[in-house]
Amino acid sequence: MKPHRVSKMENDSCSQIQVNFFTKHKAYSVPQTPFSIPVTVSCDDLSALINSLLQQENILNEDKKVEFDFLISDQYITESLQKHITKQDVETEDVVKIEYIEKKAAPWPEKMMLQNDWVSSIAVSSDCILSGSYDNMVYVWDMQGNCLNSINEHTQAVKAVNWIRKDKEKAIFLSSSLDQTIKICECPLNEGRSSCLYVCKGHTKSVDCLAVHPNEMKFCSGSWDKTLKLWSSDLSTNPDDGDDENIQKKSKTEQEHKRNITRTPLMTMTGHTEAVSSVIWSEDREVLSCGWDHTIRVWDAGSGINKHTLTGGKAFNCISYSPHSKLIASAGADRHVRLWDHRIRDGAVFQKTLTSHDGWLSSVAWSPRNQFMLVSGSYDQTLILWDTRSATTPLHVLRGHNDKVMCVDWSTEQFVISGGADNQLIVHRVSGKDEDTNDDDSTV
To answer: pTM for the complete prediction?
Structure first.
């Protein structure tokens, strides 16, 4: 097929290359026709060309404009096409395939909630936010910024929170603290007082991280005492009561009146040589943890064995695991987001570095649906939205905090939520759908 030449972009003084445009977003597909274009074109020029083609195909109205980003071999084009080709050593003898995706609009701050002290941790459900605070309190918020409940069960700063389960009327959640305890609490979402069902004791220092298993029947904790512990979150019986058949015979009323019962760990996992800062479940029987000993560790949650250890250069503050890409993202004292593939035993476990923050990273979270996107929070008071296909150029830098960012959550597709040492909890709305998951074939 004879290449189509774009007259308005021609420049006789520069060389031309043949390209083929494609997209995974079916609503913006253009004919698979090779084009001859100047190598000096910018991304704005390429975006104008795609818009023109979409208008010719009656996919876009003439008064509508869509901004696009462009990639070659899964790498964003962030400067002129010529510079990108030179830097990435792109072969231009054949037709160069250029992927285009709709430019991601910056998330915008939709709600801001103010607590009495630092926001230490966040856990988000579909319609509620659980937050922990240095004022010893746990708060439950709706997405409109209303405080549904506040819970005062700890004697020192709350360091981590996590949902166990929630319905329209009540929620069961975990909170852990500098007071060395973990509380399993029941909280009404409309009105009424919350209650502590179980106190989990076993750690000897601050409990800084929690991870609930997907089946909701157990959870893992990490502490400044350098250990991880596995606990039961089964509310039907207390594991510490043993197998006494009389437990099953107790009346429902007796069970409901049980409060503040002590639970002890099912298992203790040792191996970290400094504080454990983050813990997550990656599989049914696999736990990932990181710590200030510069390591990320992979554990068999059935046996408690440390199966594999990844070693970094500085302390890790947070890790996040993507079930889509199977990669671990780490955040720590070296100011970079680093990507790891813990499945590799012989070869390059370390995959990529994302660089832009000016301070320590406190937190990182993968997108719940997009294998390329994640968000990081830093002591430099910013959040950065990343696409892993652009390691040095962030998609967006989000400002709004007036002090260091302490935590970030991206559990639901629509919201990125952050908490900081400025006592603020900020809800950022994320616009649009990811092109990788959008099956809409309709015209625009």
So the answer is: 0.87
